[in-house]
Structures are given as structure tokens and as C-alpha cells.
Write a structure and sequence with these properties.
With 160 residues, the protein is α+β, with helices and mostly antiparallel strands. The strands form 2 sheets. It has a 4-stranded mixed beta sheet, with helices on both faces. It has helices at residues 16-39, 71-75, 85-103, and strands at 45-51, 117-121, 127-129, 134-136, 146-148, 155-159. The chain has one domain. InterPro entries: AB_hydrolase_fold.
């Protein structure tokens, strides 16, 4: 049943190792984050999805986005030497979201609260994502949660 949700050939699941990685990522990262956010949903909570990768910011060629890859963009410390205009825009967007949240934690980054997700990615439009497609967080403690079905997703949540 679980493997039907992670078909080989689907985005991010080109090999068995990719598929195992996706399953592990959702089970041990995304689902626990969702449970935490659901438990915090009575207080202002926001999430964002950072999937922007640039050749001058990759750990190795083709590595894509990784945990904490957005931090240089938040602080403007990414490599400016060969940076594209889009990299500058992503950095400015990240800086604005974090600064707005610090200045006014009740209003946050200026987008809708959870379950909406702020999007920062390469090769696509930044903005909001409130898609319905989900992969259920089952087989672990049931908090009635689900996570959007993305490949190579990095979610971060914060509450005030």
C-alpha cells in the first residue's frame, strides 16, 4: 500500500534509493513537523517550502536543495559572484519574510497562516500553495495529519 504512494518514475523517485529517501523524509521529517504545526495551530503558525537550488550554491553538482540551504539567502551571504537575478530575488524574498516575522510576529511573513505554505523555489513561481494533494501520515501516531506530496521538500514552520 505504501509503495503505491511512491511509484517509481514519479518526480523524485527515479530509483529505489530515491523512493526510500522520499518515504523516510516524509515519515521522519514532514509528518512530525505537520504534527507539531497541527498541535500549534491555535497560535499563529506559518510554513514555507524552500526548494531553490543554484549551481553556485550546491554542495555538489546536481545536489539540489538541502536542509538549511536557505540560510545564506536569509542572511544575504550566498555567493554573489555568479548569482543570477533570480537568486537575488529569492534572497530578498526570504529576508523580507523573516524580517516581517521578527517585526510583527502576529502578522508574520505576510502570507496566509498554516495550512498554507510559502514557496521559494527555482524553476517555478514563488508564492502560496494550498494544494489538496496529500500523502497521509499513517503508520505512526495518528494526529489526523497529512503532508503535501512534494518531492525533495524542505518545510520549516515557526510559531509565535
Amino acid at each position: 500500500m505504501l509503495l503505491k504512494a511512491y511509484l517509481l518514475g514519479a518526480p523524485g523517485a527515479h530509483t529505489e534509493n530515491d523512493r526510500i529517501s522520499l518515504i523516510a523524509n516524509e515519515r521522519f521529517v514532514h509528518c512530525p513537523i505537520m504534527w507539531y504545526v497541527n498541535d500549534s495551530s491555535h497560535i499563529p503558525t506559518w510554513r514555507y517550502f524552500f526548494n531553490a537550488s543554484f549551481p553556485d550554491n550546491e554542495v555538489f553538482s546536481g545536489s539540489g536543495a538541502f536542509h538549511d540551504a536557505e540560510i545564506p539567502f536569509v542572511f544575504g551571504t550566498y555567493s554573489q559572484k555568479d548569482a543570477t537575478e533570480f537568486e537575488h530575488q529569492v534572497s530578498q524574498g526570504m529576508q523580507k519574510a523573516w524580517a516581517d516575522s521578527a517585526k510583527d510576529p502576529i502578522q508574520g511573513p505576510g502570507w496566509n497562516r498554516f495550512p498554507a505554505i510559502g514557496i521559494f523555489r527555482d524553476g517555478g513561481k514563488d508564492g502560496m500553495d494550498e494544494r489538496e494533494e496529500v500523502v497521509e501520515c499513517s503508520g505512526l501516531p495518528d494526529y489526523g495529519s497529512a503532508v503535501p506530496g512534494f518531492s525533495v521538500v524542505l518545510y520549516y514552520s515557526w510559531t509565535v
